[in-house]
């Protein structure tokens, strides 16, 4: 059985960006990613990554960890299985996590959510074929696309060590999503709502 855990941190957005954003540096890495210019959620964005967040005052970072039990580790025991299992599970969980935050966006007007990594709603994104996004109501930009140092955010801000492994399934994987809010949001209620998120792990058939 895969257990999940939610961790929430929040910051004034100006302080957060000053500490963790370096657009030039991190977008250079994005250019080496297969999602670059291939997914509408990824760079180059339709919005300016340096100014898009200017209207928001606070940002909530939400980490979703998926802890693997010994039986899962025993079954997912080759490099091929680890790659296949991780890709399938993380895609399902990313979409489930995004859906939860889209619901919260509706409950708290003047908020916008961010995903981690490339958008995973469609099997093949329309961007490469020059067509508009199929699900603009669900697509949210990846936090990485704004030049945010997600590794540092995860470790320093959420106190979670990012684990990866190809020879052995790590103890857990982590997805980092976020919610930016404007001045009029009741932060206390929102923080509780986020902390109480319950996102059960999906089943993956290998
Ligand atoms: S919703 Fe579909 S078309 Fe739009 S960015 Fe995501 S994968 Fe691409």
From TrEMBL:
<dbReference type="InterPro" id="IPR019271">
    <property type="entry name" value="DUF2284_metal-binding"/>
</dbReference>
<protein>
    <submittedName>
        <fullName>DUF2284 domain-containing protein</fullName>
    </submittedName>
</protein>
<dbReference type="Pfam" id="PF10050">
    <property type="entry name" value="DUF2284"/>
</dbReference>
